[in-house]
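Progress note, project year one: complex with zinc ion.
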Amino acid sequence: MARFISAAVGAGGVNLREDVRVIQEMLNQVPDGEGGPSPLLDTDSVVGPLTIGAIRNFQKRQVGFNDGRVDTNNVTINKLNTFDRTPASSAAVSFRHQQPLDPLNPLNQADPLDGFDATAAPFPWLLVPFQDVNRVRLVNGGSFSLLTSNRNIATVERDIILGTIGRIPTGIINIQGVAAGDAFIRVLDGAGNQVARLDVSVRRRRNLGIAFHYVVNAGVGTQTRNPGDEAGFLPLMNQIYLRQANIQFRLVSARRLTITDNLGTEVNTIGLQTNGEWPNIVRHRNGSAKFNVFFVREVETDDDGEPGGANFSATPTDSVDAITEIGGNRDCIFEDAAGNAANMGETLAHEAGHALGELDDGANPLHLMFGTTDARGRKITKAQALRMHQNAGL
Ligand SMILES: [Zn+2]
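Model obtained:
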């Protein structure tokens, strides 16, 4: 039936690799006596004298001119398509994760933290790093055509391995980020029907400076954490963010911070900026970091731990693990009892999401922004990733 290309192939053409391979395969389907190449072309996705020569030979035999170039939707590809055998779609075509399982996402291993959001609507979505590659699996896509909506933003290519009997598609699709922006990949069957679409956002890496302050104080200083501990949880933060949002946390400083004020037995944060204890701590932020974390023994949103306070209780409640200002100065006060020690990177990644402007995502426990510590997944959705990435640049 038919195959399609994103841009011109051959002499003076754009020569996107996927398009070049398609034209090489199409020429190889043409019999020798009808202007097909002999010997057959190597379908190596690279334009050279053999491929251009084969286009010219085909054109001489079939279309009455020989400029050596196959344009999109023009006479040469139309003639080539009379020899094509690509069928119309018979099974549902879909995009999936490149890898089926990801141990980095223990609550939902079947949803890898790779920048692919299958739940995005109306089309699945992939984050692609600027001048780098991300990958998805194309199911039931066979030899259907892969087209980019904007080759200046993203290009698409089937992943091919060279086996002993020739070049073999792996079923994986490579998407190359050319420039920051949004584009989409279309899959067209042999009848020209769009049978799948993948939305793509190409984004530059955002480096986000992070500073850790291990608070020393008679009442509220951390009793379990010390400078150097960050080496144990920063890697997990980056494993969660790097592929899903193209954000990388970079350590700016980690130090002990002595605060001499009498802060009682818990850092009391009622009203954040208006209560004295919150600003007394966060004013020590490192201005060259974009996310400041203060480790304390206990942080609370009530005042029942304050000796002499109106609501003082001998058994104060422990209702929160950490408090982070949504956006704003991006300060976080994080207590010793916050979650499992081995899961610190995940809990801090959640707090970083708040610092990047995200609210708790109450609906889905598989999401990183779900509110309950140690009971959440690590998925960052398309909408969250794009907002976080934008805010990380501010
Ligand atoms: Zn939260």
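The pocket of zinc ion is lined by residues 350, 354, 360, 371 (CB under 6 Å).
The chain is about 20% helix and 25% strand.
No further modelling is planned for this target in the current period.
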